[in-house]
Amino acid sequence: SLVPVGADGAIALKTTLAGTVHVVADVQGYIVAGAVTAPGAVVPVTPTRVLDTRTTGHVGPWGTVTLSVTQGAGVPADAAAVFANLTVTGPQVSGFLTAWPTGVTKPTASNVNFVANQTVPNLAIVKLGADGAISIYNSTSKPLDVVVDIQGYVRGGTATLPGTVVPVTPTRAVDTRLGLNASGPVAANSGVVVGLDSPSLSAVPQGAVINLTVTEPRESGYLSAYPFGVPAPLVSNLNFTPGATVPNLSLATLNDGFAVLYNGSPGTVQMVADVLAYVLY
Hints:
Blueprint: E1 42-52, H1 53-56, E2 64-68, E3 81-89, E4 95-101, E5 112-114, E6 120-127, E7 133-138, E8 145-154, E9 165-175, E10 190-195, E11 207-215, E12 221-227, E13 238-240, E14 246-253, E15 258-264, E16 270-279
Antiparallel strand pairs: 1-8, 2-7, 3-6, 3-8, 4-5, 4-7, 9-16, 10-15, 11-14, 11-16, 12-13, 12-15
């Protein structure tokens, strides 16, 4: 989640369960306080629901819904991208959602993976089309519902300053099932070094915003993304159980364009990474 910080430097975490739960929070980055005007700067907003197809009508089989996100939710008309929490609910079969800017071909990428009767959320950074809209695709042969909550946006214009963000049309950078930039399955308790740089940037970025997905895990465990050349940190980007397909948005810090994707489980896994944006030096 992209969470605005209170005046005391704290955030609140709330559960609706009647009982107790354990919560783990791993910080992957921060946004400098103050008024932001630079292109590529990230601006958090109070979370606002902009779509709920449970009241507006299902997304049909293999269907696409187009959503304008610059009308309300505090997102200006010239924004470059939005941070959107995408939730799928009521799916009848397994599949995935893909979100991408309007006006371009649907990419080979996914944002939310799910199985039948599952309600699954995931945060995404989605580049906006020229009309300030995004498209969301239902990959299944059955109707389902989608909920979209906006949590922030990226200011428009050409980003050049360190720490600013360059959103891109989602691009599949790693798929160990196909041998794309890393061969799988990834062995137990080991990592693979992957290149997440972009030839379209004038300099090597300091980070990549990726949708990281694990699939076909043999045992329970976690995935962790961290810079190449440093010791593995005690954090996780996503957690999984045997046979599950689990996505999560991650900010992967890079070292000369490379990161390590680590399988923290006693069994093999397959990994997929889709790049949604870059963070400049």
